[in-house]
What does this fold into?
Amino acid sequence: MTLRKNIEELLSEDPTQATLRSIKYFDSRVPDLNKVVLFGAGNIGRMILKKMRHAGIEPLAFVDETPSKISTFIEGLEIISLETAYHRYGSDLTAIITILNPNHDYIATERMLKEKFGMNAISFLACVWKFPDSFKSLQFMVAPDLTLSQGEQLLTLSDGLADDQSRLELEKHIRFRLYLDFHEINILESKPYFTKTVPLNLPKDVKFIDAGAYDGDTIRLFLDHAQNQFSHITAIEPDPVNFKHLSEYVQELSPDIRNRIKIKNVALSGKAGKLYFNATGDMNSNLGSTGNIEVDVDSLETIISEEGNYYIKFDIEGAESETISNSLKIIQERRPAMAISVYHSYDDIWSIPNQLKELDMGYKFYLRSHGIDGTDLICYALPN
It folds into this structure.
């Protein structure tokens, strides 16, 4: 059976049956909503607590193994250790795992909770299936019937991908969204943005735009890949704490490298101006209407106003689609190579590459996974 046929078969499931299946999945793993703890007392945990309370559920506690968090509270809910949770509430708990980042291994966490403490475990992503009115969507996860309703768009994407590895990646992520089986997506590509399985062929005078530069982690990868053969780097990072770490890293580089790097404490979007930003000082910082600071925003048109050979990394926490949609004219003019995060919103995986393909610029599109737990799914858009 061809990869396209596999995808067609996945998308042929009856939406009503898929909804019933997904609810049963949650119920079988959470037998008692009164005996639930949230495993992971971070930003996602805080968000899930709010949504669970909206759904009328009060978890017993946060569980976290970070010593400095123990015996503190988030929104009135105590943070306790796993040992305390086990002795206080017993083993018939369900831990809703509220962690999602490229380095977290859900399968390992689930196994540890079961083997050491006898606890059931389920990803917070499954809450979308059980409580759609309160959760609606979480990152890339929506109710299965909504994924199934986008079959035409997903098949269009499949037809437009450049190789079978990309189509296999797409199949795995569709299956993951329909069945939440983490075993589907635990084989990863090394070196995000510079993987050897995608023909980047960056020229010696490439201008690298690192949008979502964090602490300089991608610049490190780029410098290793380019081996000093590049024109310059523009690194964009709006979070003040992350920007401080980025600045410190750049200052440690040799003058020859450092003098070709420009760092900007701004956000990137489709239009210049100011926006609110949730500054968390980690990888979860993001633009949002309820952000805790206001930041300056540069447009992509401003960033790549000069002619040249550009390679642009977009990891801007959900602003990728808006930025690209409002920058199509400059993209058509400059025809940059792009590596775009397509997992922050549920429709990014198909809407962003399909929109770019409609421009008929002769681009080739590749999908690669560089993170576990469904994160760091990258669409490489490369001009011929």
About this structure: The chain has a mean pLDDT of 92.
